[in-house]
Structure prediction request, 411 residues.
Amino acid sequence: MKTLKTWVTVPDNSDFSIYNLPFGIFSVNGDTPRAGIAIGKQIIDLAAISDLGLIAVNASYFRQRTLNEFISLGKKITNKVRLDVQRLLTVENSPLKNHSEVFVSQQDAKMYLPVHVGDYTDFYSSIEHATNVGKMFRDPENALLPNWRHIPVGYHGRASSIVVSGTDIRRPMGQVKTNDMEVPVFKASGNLDFELEMGFIVGKSTELGERISTQEAAEHIFGLVLFNDWSARDIQKWEYVPLGPFLGKSFASSMSPWIVTLEALEPFKVQGPEQQPEVLSYLKYEGENNYDIKLEVGMSSSTSEETTISKSNFKYMYWNMMQQLAHHTVNGCNINVGDVMASGTISGKDESSYGSLLEISWGGKKPFELKDGSARTFIEDNDTVTMRGFAEKDGKRVGFGQVTGTILPST
Prediction:
């Protein structure tokens, strides 16, 4: 990655460096939402610089309430827009220096879900997480189910309840049955959890019956976001046999507002873990397809400042995004621009890197403390969960900002 210098002020350790330039949807003072690119503490109004003739995409694509139509133009165009903006922010005689009106303070902006999500799939691709769950609920000696090392396990989630970072989440109600109950009861979830995940945004649609190979997958991935798959563990425990997650998951998922492009993350690619036994031919891939993205989770409450409770990394994923997309479409399932594919909980190899409270508190058996000394096993009312992520190499940083949500009492 060559060294770049921008004339825009960018704070040290900013997620939104000149090497990043993620896309999002914003508004200011209640005006119409539109597309922007983040740089430092500011947003560049893409419609405004298009009106100035500085990028070769009609401003109408940037005056949409989502990025779907812009993404549909294809990577040849979307990548050029990002690189053109990067050039405008680095050249000494940039015409943008005379147009301060195209810059908006992020502090003054309201952010929106960046895409219309037509479909959402959640995978289960961390071997550490799957092993921990298997040890807790099945067999400590044979924690993984027989299919786990052969297929990227996933389920189809609820797209309508994906919300942008900062949206409050109402504690869900549902059926709960503990081992000492003869029949279930209807109540608010008492075992509310987060799941530290990343999601990728589909950038190229396919037709029904079409398959995507691992070699082609990157062309169908526009970029990545932080993703919190909120989970009601007690509701989920009662309902998940025989068909899997339903009400325990569908009440809400939170997504960060900025989409970091796959191209911006190219320098941070690393080799994934060895896969044994050997995978079937359609899941084989070449090169480095995992990403070294540092992740962390903080929890705060009405009485306690934020406590860091997990530090993990996206590089731990056993099944990578290319394999997930190849498996998702191998049966001919079509995908559409804006679809979200989430990674599943990202856990590392030790307790400090577990990606859910289910693991951190080991099913509620190991309470942990916030900074004010209050104990937690699961999320309580008015607790806030904040996730952050960034990649860094050779002094160059590309980050995602954060995804945050506060739990409100059930009604």
